[in-house]
Amino acid sequence: MAGEPQDDCLFCKIVAGHIPATIVRETETTVAFRDINPKAPTHILVIPKAHYENAAALAAGAPELAADVLRETRAVADEDELDSYRIVFNTGSGAGQTVWHAHAHVLGGRGLEWPPG
């Protein structure tokens, strides 16, 4: 069920404290932590504490929570003193999503090409 923790979800386990992560920020509704396989000098994931399969499900099911996630991307970028950065939401396996819990990637600290990928 949307919003409910999933026993088999890596990010739900991080939220619950069952799997360690390098947490950089936490609010009542979100957690931000360093990616274990960074693609840039700064690569932080911002996730909602509630489980939604992807960004589309999060936006449809809890738009206020989607706004919290986006607000926190700015906060982690500010804390890492990034004057420019990229926010990426991968939705679906064809787009590169590998963990089925909505999350935003905050990437910065180097030049980022366009188009990506």
Order of helices and strands: HEEEHHEE
Please state the overall shape, judged from the principal axes of the Cα atoms: globular
Helix count equals 3
Strand content: 15-25%
User: Unreliable stretches, pLDDT < 50, 5 or more residues?
Assistant: none
- Helix and strand content put the structural class at alpha+beta
Highest-level CATH class: Alpha Beta
Helix content: 25-40%
Lateral arrangement of strands in the main beta sheet: 1-2-3-5-4
Give the name of the CATH architecture: 2-Layer Sandwich
pLDDT averaged over residues: 95
GO molecular function, one term: catalytic activity
Domain HIT: 10-117
Motif (Histidine triad motif): 101-105
InterPro entries: Histidine_triad_HIT, HIT-like, HIT-like_sf
Q: How is the secondary structure organized here?
A:
Blueprint: H1 10-16, E1 23-26, E2 30-34, E3 42-48, H2 55-61, H3 63-79, E4 85-88, E5 104-108
Antiparallel strand pairs: 1-2, 2-3, 3-5, 4-5
Helix pairs in contact: 2-3
